[in-house]
């Protein structure tokens, strides 16, 4: 596997950074220590640093040794999840309420390795923006950076991001044009009745029958109302009601998420969902409070940048290491906001499962850990993208 020799040599440093970040996780918009570490490293390598975009985001600006007017962005997410860690290795989380269970520690270390290497060589024409983003985990940190003027202050002709993928073997890179990840919407439903003694339900208005009927009915939206060839997921992750065995609850609350791959399916699920929730609440005489929040749009790779990223990754992992037929996933990514706001870009998925079965624990699991062997692979892909996008004497795209 032809990983860049300089980045292979940087692996011990990247591993040290990664494990330090893993041991000190910070959730969205609280990445003070992490962003401080990032800024300090970038400044030490002579990279121009800008702090505070999207509250705790950091942007490093590096100009090449050769003249050029193109600029690109490379993005890594920095935040952890609000969950306890179940691992017992030396670099486990020191915060009982937070854990890097999605590999953002690894993404940050990879981009730092990329920045250190490019700062030493600068063998490109144009400008690279290293975008270290906060609050990816459901808190739309990418959008916050954009609203803070990310692309006005640091214009990008294209943006690139990547993510580890425990379901793929180490050395495999999934990259293709089109929809890679789903649109993400969230909902909260409150059905309010009237509390009463459990021995006299006729004196109250029990919201549980309506809520349980709604729960079951919502499961039919995908299976009975959507085209079977469409991809849609509706999941209810929280169902709360009552405080006592002998008191009928006043309120039932349900919270969940809807995932779709196309704007048309997203609109259809939105309309079907609202009709069913409102109709069920009215049928049971319940007061309804519905909060439906559209979050990430679909993550859609543009054709030109997908082809360029594929070429760069092929130079690292070989043609046999490229997977261009991975189906669209129903996970979401707020890098999608950056893709929407840029002329082009691509998002790569990098396999991290070892041949011995290690590092195959899924993300958002308390026993997950990032595979440090992926660090030089991801950094080499990033460097290859820069060298191809900002080739001396020519425009890489368009």
Distance between the termini: 30 Å
CATH class of the largest domain: Alpha Beta
- In terms of DSSP E residues, the strand content is 25-35%
Q: With helices defined by DSSP (H or I, 4 residues minimum), what is the helix count?
A: 12
Note the main sheet: 8 strands, mixed
Q: What's the arrangement of strands in the largest beta sheet?
A: 1-2-4-3-5-16-6-15
Structural class: alpha/beta
Binned, the helix content reads: 25-40%
In CATH, what is the homologous superfamily of the largest domain? Zn peptidases
Q: Which H/E pattern describes the elements?
A: HHHEEEHEHHEEEEEHHEEEHEEHEHEH
Number of strands: 16
**Radius of gyration, CA atoms, in whole angstroms:** 23 Å
Mean pLDDT across all residues, rounded?
A: 94
Quickly count the domains: 2
How would you characterize the overall build of this protein?
- By secondary structure, this protein is an alpha/beta fold.
- The protein has 2 domains: 5-181 and 298-389, Aminopeptidase (3-Layer(aba) Sandwich); 183-294, Alpha-Beta Plaits, CATH 3.30.70.
- The protein has helices at 5-9, 11-23, 32-44, 104-121, 141-147, 150-153, 208-218, 220-225, 263-283, 303-317, 335-341, 375-389; strands at residues 48-53, 57-63, 66-77, 125-133, 158-169, 173-174, 178-181, 183-192, 196-197, 232-241, 247-248, 251-260, 287-294, 299-301, 322-323, 345-353.
- Strands 1-2-4-3-5-16-6-15 form an 8-stranded mixed β-sheet.
- Strand 3, helix 4 (104-121) and strand 4 (125-133) form a beta-alpha-beta unit.
- The two termini are 30 Å apart.
- Residues 393-398 have low confidence and may be disordered.
């Amino acid at each position: 596997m032809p990983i860049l020799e300089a980045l292979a040599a940087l692996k011990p440093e990247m591993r040290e950074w990664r494990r330090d970040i893993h041991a000190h996780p910070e959730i969205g918009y609280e990445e003070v220590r992490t962003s401080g570490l990032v800024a300090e490293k970038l400044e030490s390598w002579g990279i121009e640093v800008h702090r505070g975009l999207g509250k705790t985001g950091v942007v490093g600006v590096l100009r090449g040794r050769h003249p050029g007017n193109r600029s690109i962005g490379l993005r890594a997410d920095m935040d952890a999840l609000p969950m306890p860690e179940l691992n017992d290795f030396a670099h486990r989380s020191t915060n009982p309420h937070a854990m890097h269970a999605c590999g953002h520690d690894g993404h940050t270390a990879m981009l730092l390795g990329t920045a250190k290497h490019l700062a030493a060589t600068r063998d490109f024409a144009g400008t690279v923006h290293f975008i270290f983003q906060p609050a990816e985990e459901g808190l739309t940190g990418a959008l916050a950076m954009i609203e803070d003027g990310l692309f006005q202050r640091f214009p990008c002709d294209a943006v690139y991001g990547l993510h580890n993928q425990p379901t793929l073997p180490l050395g495999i890179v999934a990259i293709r044009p089109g929809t890679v990840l789903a649109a993400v919407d969230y909902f909260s439903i409150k059905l309010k009745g009237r509390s009463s003694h459990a021995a006299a339900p006729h004196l109250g208005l029990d919201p549980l029958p309506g809520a349980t009927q709604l729960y079951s009915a919502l499961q039919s939206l995908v299976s009975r109302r959507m085209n079977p060839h469409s991809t849609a997921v509706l999941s209810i992750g929280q169902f709360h009601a009552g405080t006592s065995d002998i008191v009928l609850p006043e309120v039932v609350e349900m919270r969940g998420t809807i995932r779709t791959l196309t704007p048309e399916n997203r609109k259809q699920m939105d309309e079907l969902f609202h009709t069913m929730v409102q109709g069920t609440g009215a049928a049971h005489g319940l007061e309804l409070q519905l909060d439906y929040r559209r979050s990430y749009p679909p993550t859609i790779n543009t054709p030109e940048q997908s082809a360029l990223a594929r070429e760069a990754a092929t130079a690292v992992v070989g043609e046999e290491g490229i997977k261009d037929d991975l189906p669209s996933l129903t996970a979401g990514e707020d890098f999608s906001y950056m893709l929407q706001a840029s002329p082009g870009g691509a998002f790569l998925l990098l396999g991290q499962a070892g041949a011995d079965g290690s590092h195959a624990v899924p993300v958002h699991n308390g026993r997950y850990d990032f595979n440090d062997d992926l660090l030089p692979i991801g950094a080499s892909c990033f460097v290859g993208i820069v060298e191809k996008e900002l080739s001396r004497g020519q425009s890489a795209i368009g």
